[in-house]
């Protein structure tokens, strides 16, 4: 059966890949197997394509292993003497394709050993067999009545011409045969690929120009470069591929002739190049996307070529025509519905990217031509959108959205003529009623334009009221499409934050319209998802905080907004106590998480100048925080996460007002610390608290000993490190633990740990030193930094406070051992950073007690090394210290290996 046959072939493939090259005894068996296959296909019906391709791959593996050393006559003996059978001819060509994949294909990553082997094989093929093989190509194209053989032969030529003598293919016999195949329906695509490969072959500019000139003349005579209305898409695509290859080759010649000051040759090149432009534009204008794409790269390269030269009237006329056609092609075809994410729609959007790239190239050369082309389109759009179809409206809006990419990105800040006209186009669109069209793609793009050009709107505020109205009605937040509402609510939040100072007079009206949208209910279907609702609350609070309202009204509105959430949270909490069904409980918990999230988003409106305190809202949010701290169940990881995010916001908004709540905050999370991720996230919160409040924390009666005891118990427990999630969470927890210690030290909070006594400090130091030698380089670096910062704080007036001298001595020994550990890889960038941190740490440790430091290192290192270390740490700093210590560590590692 087929499956059994394939399994046997896989066994053979494994042998050929792994063992055959070293097995001289197997060579005769393999040759017999190959001979039997050739005889089989010569005397019976051709095997299925998949079987022939697999066998060709195996023959190619034998060729790569045997040629030229063990089997220099491979081609002659296996194929060239047995080409009477059409089936053998086809298999021969398949094998040549497989050899190209195995030996030549540059897109396949290869080891240096294989690369060198392949280079040797290609050199040998040029010497021993490629001339004979090329003669067979000529015979096949001239005499074969087998369509498949002709097609494969042309594909082989396309693959091989890049590295063989060009004259084997470009000669009076072969070129007419290849060009003749352009008129063969079955072989035309392969013929195009072969001709393009010939044109693209690397060679001297003069030779390339002569080749391309000759081929262009023959192709013109053949009619292959002409595009007429009667051509179908496939014919135009073939012409486009040939024109693109010729055009790109001529551009390359132009550049080289220009560089070498070969004026006459460059003029000849330009004349030939100009002859390709009109048919290239005709190809570009073809309705078929794949056909149109064939010449995009050529057109882009041509525009790039014009950048360095004075533009003639003919050049400008061509660019204007090109831009006009790009703008026309930007419109989605009738069979494309951009509301969908189908394959055709994705292909069209990819095509549009290429059009934008082409326009962007024009924009760096002649941006005024782009603006000239868009001005009538925008006038028509703004005045006649009610009589227009969706596709042309969407196309113009998309081009306006992309103006920042198409012309210079700084045009918003510029005042030259082109920039002024471009800005006028945007303002015309934003001042129009085109969003009343209501189509998903039109309205989405319209609101995207609003937010992309927020700086332009900030300087030209007249459209703001109408834009605000558009956001709030059925064009935006109330649009029937849920997908559009999701995008628009995010854009609305951006819009409000960008223009918060300018929307103050509309706060009352806006709040009235937003109020129904803020009425969240776990049992009711909302227009918005839970995440969408976050943006609504953030936008609403921003309007309140920055609105033209008296402080009393800001206070009232904010309290109403936040207070309504608190009431809903408390009501949900009561409901949670009553329900027994786990599904209902989960639904309520999810709702309560969202409520906490909305409370957090409200606070994002507050800034240093418009703070909670200045709006008289601090007590409201403090009360909400205490309620959440009291009510959030410690067995719900999701709710604890939502609470933590709210507390992050409270730390950002409050100052010493937060101090009384710190013990409650710590106790809450310590009660739920069995989850490593929850504990990690809390340590990040603790760092934020310490960094914000600094020494003020010491007035909060905060007790951290319990937290450290809990962390140490995690460190001493066994963990299933084979579980990636467990290992990752533990890794992040350890890093956060070290970062928290560092935060305590650098923010003048040393009493938080030192007041727990020498025994505590001994355990803490041992814990940090253990991480100095762990396998995680990030944790190592932080641990070494923590050691240095800790002892710089503990040292005072010639003594080290709060820890025994043995701890300091052990820190020296451990730090010295870090760069000398077997796991330390000096070639790894992260390990180098750790090594540098160790040097800095040693310098700090030595500063504490220099003489005792020297005595300690003398006990573990040779005297000449200790003298160097002491000298470096005493006299050098920064990069110089790192350099000399690196050299010393390298020397010690070599001595260790030698020993």
UniProtKB/TrEMBL annotation:
Keywords: Cytoplasm, Nucleus, RNA-binding, Transport, tRNA-binding. It comes from the Eukaryota. Residues 48-193 form the Exportin-1/Importin-beta-like domain. Pfam families: Exportin-T, Xpo1. InterPro entries: ARM-like, ARM-type_fold, Exportin-1/Importin-b-like, Exportin-T_C, XPOT. It is found in: Cytoplasm; Nucleus. GO terms for cellular component: cytoplasm; nuclear matrix; nuclear pore. Belongs to the exportin family. tRNA nucleus export receptor which facilitates tRNA translocation across the nuclear pore complex. This is Exportin-T. It comes from Parascaris univalens (Nematode worm).
């Amino acid at each position: 059966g087929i499956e059994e046959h394939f399994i046997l072939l896989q066994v053979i493939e494994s042998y050929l890949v792994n063992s055959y090259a070293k097995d001289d005894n197997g060579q005769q068996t393999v040759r017999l197997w190959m001979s039997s296959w050739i005889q089989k296909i010569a005397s019976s019906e051709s095997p299925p394509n998949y079987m022939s391709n697999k066998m060709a791959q195996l023959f190619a593996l034998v060729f790569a292993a045997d040629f030229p050393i063990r089997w220099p006559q491979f081609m002659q003996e296996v194929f060239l003497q047995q080409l009477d059978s059409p089936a053998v001819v086809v298999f021969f060509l398949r094998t040549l394709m497989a050899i190209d994949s195995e030996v030549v294909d540059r897109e396949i990553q290869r080891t240096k050993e294989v690369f060198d082997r392949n280079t040797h094989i290609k050199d040998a093929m040029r010497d021993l067999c490629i001339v004979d093989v090329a003669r067979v190509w000529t015979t096949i194209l001239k005499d074969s009545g087998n369509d498949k053989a002709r097609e494969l032969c042309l594909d082989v030529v396309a693959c091989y011409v890049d590295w063989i003598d060009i004259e084997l293919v470009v000669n009076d016999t072969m070129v007419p045969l290849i060009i003749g195949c352009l008129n063969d329906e079955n072989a035309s695509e392969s013929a195009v690929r072969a001709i393009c490969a010939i044109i693209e072959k690397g060679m001297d500019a003069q030779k390339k120009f002569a080749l391309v000139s000759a081929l262009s003349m023959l192709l013109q005579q053949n009619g292959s470069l002409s595009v007429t209305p009667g051509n179908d898409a496939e014919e135009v695509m073939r012409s486009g591929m040939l024109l693109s290859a010729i055009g790109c080759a001529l551009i390359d010649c132009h550049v080289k002739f220009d560089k070498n000051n070969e004026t006459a040759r460059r003029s000849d090149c330009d004349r030939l190049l100009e002859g390709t432009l009109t048919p290239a534009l005709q190809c570009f204008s073809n309705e078929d996307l794949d056909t149109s794409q064939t010449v995009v790269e050529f057109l882009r390269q041509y525009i790039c070529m014009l950048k360095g030269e004075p533009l003639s009237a003919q050049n400008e006329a061509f660019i204007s025509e090109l831009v006009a056609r790009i703008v026309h092609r930007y419109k989605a075809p009738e069979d494309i519905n951009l509301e969908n994410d189908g394959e055709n729609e994705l292909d069209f959007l990819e095509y549009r990217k290429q059009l934008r790239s082409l326009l962007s190239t024009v924009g760096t050369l002649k941006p005024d031509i782009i603006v000239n082309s868009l001005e009538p389109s925008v006038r028509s759009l703004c005045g006649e959108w009610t009589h227009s179809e969706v596709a042309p409206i969407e196309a113009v809006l998309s081009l306006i959205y992309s103006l920042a990419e198409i012309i210079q990105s700084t045009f918003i800040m510029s005042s030259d003529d082109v920039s002024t006209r471009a800005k006028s186009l945007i303002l015309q669109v934003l001042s129009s009623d085109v969003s009343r069209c209501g189509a998903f793609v039109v309205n989405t793009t319209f609101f995207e334009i609003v937010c992309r050009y927020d700086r332009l709107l900030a300087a030209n505020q007249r459209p703001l009221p109408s834009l605000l109205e558009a956001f709030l009605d059925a064009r935006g937040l109330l649009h029937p499409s849920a997908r559009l509402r999701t995008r628009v609510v995010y854009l609305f939040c951006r819009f409000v934050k960008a223009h918060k100072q300018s929307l103050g007079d509309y706060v009352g009206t806006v709040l009235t319209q937003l109020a129904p949208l803020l009425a969240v209910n776990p049992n009711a279907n909302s227009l918005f998802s839970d995440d969408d609702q976050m943006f609504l609350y953030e936008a609403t609070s921003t309007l309140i905080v920055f609105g033209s309202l008296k402080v009393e009204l800001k206070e009232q509105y904010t309290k109403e907004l936040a207070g309504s959430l608190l009431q809903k949270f408390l009501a949900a909490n009561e409901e949670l106590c009553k329900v027994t069904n786990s599904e209902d409980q989960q639904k309520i918990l999810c709702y309560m998480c969202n409520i906490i999230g909305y409370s957090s988003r409200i606070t994002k409106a507050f800034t240093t100048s418009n703070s909670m305190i200045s709006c008289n809202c601090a007590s409201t949010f403090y009360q909400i925080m205490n309620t959440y701290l009291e009510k959030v169940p410690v067995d719900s990881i999701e709710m604890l996460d939502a609470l933590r995010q709210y507390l992050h916001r409270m730390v950002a908004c409050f100052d010493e007002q937060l101090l009384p709540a710190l013990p409650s905050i710590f106790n809450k999370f310590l009660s739920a610390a069995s989850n490593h991720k929850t504990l990690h996230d809390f340590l990040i919160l603790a760092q934020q608290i310490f960094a914000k409040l600094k020494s003020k924390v010491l007035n909060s009666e905060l007790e951290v000993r319990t937290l450290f005891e809990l962390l140490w118990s995690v460190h001493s427990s066994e963990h299933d490190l084979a579980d990636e999630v467990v290992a990752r969470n533990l890794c992040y927890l350890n890093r956060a633990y070290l970062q928290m210690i560092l935060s305590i030290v650098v923010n003048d909070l040393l009493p938080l740990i030192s007041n727990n006594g020498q025994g505590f400090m001994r355990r803490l130091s041992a814990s940090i030193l253990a991480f100095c030698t762990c396998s995680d380089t990030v944790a190592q670096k932080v641990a070494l930094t923590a050691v240095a910062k800790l002892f710089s704080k503990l040292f005072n007036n010639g003594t080290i406070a709060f820890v025994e001298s043995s701890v300091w001595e052990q820190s020296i020994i451990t730090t010295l051992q870090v760069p000398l550990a077997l796991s330390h890889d000096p070639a790894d960038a992260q390990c180098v950073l750790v090594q540098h941190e160790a040097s800095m740490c040693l310098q700090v440790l030595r500063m504490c007690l220099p003489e005792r430091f020297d005595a300690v290192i003398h006990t573990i290192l040779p005297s000449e090394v200790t003298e160097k270390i002491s000298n470096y740490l005493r006299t050098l700093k920064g990069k110089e210290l790192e350099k000399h210590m690196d050299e010393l560590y390298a020397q010690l590692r070599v001595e260790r290996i030698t020993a």
